[in-house]
């Protein structure tokens, strides 16, 4: 279902990122770079890294839109991750 408040004709590309991958990369941002970010930022990071590797002659700017404080009891909780299965064990860091 497409949201009514978004004009998809304005975009050249759309990249879909699973919740598990977004959560994994939110963790990566924290562990590797000291950035306490949420899953939307994790998803943006994945797509930004993809763009940088696929277009090495271009400058890539990635906006990390959310902070991690809202996700302490979810994305950053090992118990929540185990209970929901949203972050499979094979991608835990």
Describe the fold and architecture:
The protein is an all-alpha fold and 93 residues long. Helices cover 41% and strands 0% of the residues. It has helices at residues 19-33, 39-54, 78-84. Helix 1 (19-33) packs across helix 2 (39-54). The longest helix has 16 residues, at 39-54. The relative contact order is 0.17. It comes from Pandoraea oxalativorans.
Give the arrangement of secondary structure elements.
Layout: H1 19-33, H2 39-54, H3 78-84
Helix pairs in contact: 1-2
The chain-level mean pLDDT equals: 87
Structural class: mainly alpha
Based on CA atoms alone, the radius of gyration comes out at 15 Å
Oligomer state of the chains in this structure: single chain
Broad CATH class = Alpha Beta
CATH topology: Rossmann fold
Total DSSP E strands: 0
Q: Poorly predicted ranges (pLDDT <50, ≥5 residues)?
A: none
Gap from first CA to last CA: 33 Å
Principal-axis shape equals globular
User: Mind summarizing the main beta sheet?
Assistant: none
N to C succession of SSEs: HHH
Please give the count of helices: 3
Q: What's the architecture, going by CATH?
A: 3-Layer(aba) Sandwich
- Helix content estimate: 40-55%
Write down the domain tally: 1
* Share in β-strands: under 5%
């Amino acid at each position: 279902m497409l949201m009514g408040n978004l004009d998809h004709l304005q975009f050249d590309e759309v990249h879909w990122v699973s919740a598990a991958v977004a959560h994994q990369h939110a963790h990566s941002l924290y562990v590797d770079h000291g950035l306490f970010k949420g899953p939307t930022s994790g998803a943006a990071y994945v797509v930004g890294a993809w763009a940088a590797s696929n277009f090495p002659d271009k400058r890539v700017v990635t906006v990390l839109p959310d902070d991690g404080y809202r996700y302490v009891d979810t994305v950053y909780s090992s118990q929540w991750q185990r209970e929901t299965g949203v972050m499979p064990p094979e991608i835990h860091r």
